[in-house]
Write a structure and sequence with these properties.
By secondary structure, the protein is α+β, with helices and mostly antiparallel strands. The protein has five helices and seven strands; from the N terminus they run E-H-H-H-E-E-E-H-E-H-E-E. The two termini are 16 Å apart. Keywords: Acyltransferase, Transferase. It holds the Pfam family Acetyltransf_1. It comes from Flavihumibacter fluminis. InterPro entries: Acyl_CoA_acyltransferase, Bact_Acetyltransf, GNAT_dom.
């Protein structure tokens, strides 16, 4: 498996992959009208295609035999993002998703290792992420990697105000899973 930076030519693919994996992950747990509103207003194809051009954002796609299996968005923060998080430079794992067919086949593991190595290359001491409080599979995955809940924040999905846990990992010792 290769994990490669997204090129300008791949922005459309990235946007489509982002929307597909989001729907696959969350549609069965949410009202269709909230999912549609989120996709139409907060997660549009055009918005997603513009994100790689934002400062301090890094996008990667996991590939195997020319097939995209997942993607991640990493963001470098030089200031504090939330009061419960450290006030030191950090890397946020903003998104880490695999396509349905790749779940359980090591794609998430490979992307997480890549993300932690990337964070170390930025010489940060902590990595953080937000995860929906009801996404138990993801929470278990992050806990295996040493992430600990430090707080939470609201996430608006359409008209539904949900809660994301904020989880932090110290980069003193990488956990190899």
């Amino acid at each position: 498996m290769d994990i490669l930076a997204v090129t300008n030519e791949q922005k459309g693919l990235l946007a489509d992959l982002s929307r597909q994996t989001f729907v696959d992950t969350f549609a069965s747990y949410n009202k269709p009208e909230d999912m549609q509103l989120f996709l139409d207003k907060q997660f549009t194809r055009d918005q997603l295609m513009a994100e790689p051009d934002e400062p301090d954002n890094y996008f990667f796609i996991a590939w195997e035999d020319g097939v995209p299996l997942g993607y991640m968005r990493l963001r470098f923060w030089q200031t504090q993002a939330y009061s419960c998080l450290p006030s030191v430079p950090t890397v946020e794992i903003t998104r880490l998703y695999a396509i349905q067919a790749a779940i359980g086949k090591g794609v998430g593991k490979a992307m997480m290792q890549f993300a932690l190595d990337f964070a170390r290359s930025k010489t940060v001491k902590q990595v953080w992420l937000g995860v929906w409080e009801h996404n138990e599979r993801a929470i278990r995955f992050y806990q295996k990697w040493g992430f600990e809940r430090k707080g939470d924040h609201p996430f608006l999905l359409g008209t539904d105000s949900q809660t994301d846990w904020l989880m932090v990992k110290e980069l003193g010792d990488l956990v190899k899973i």
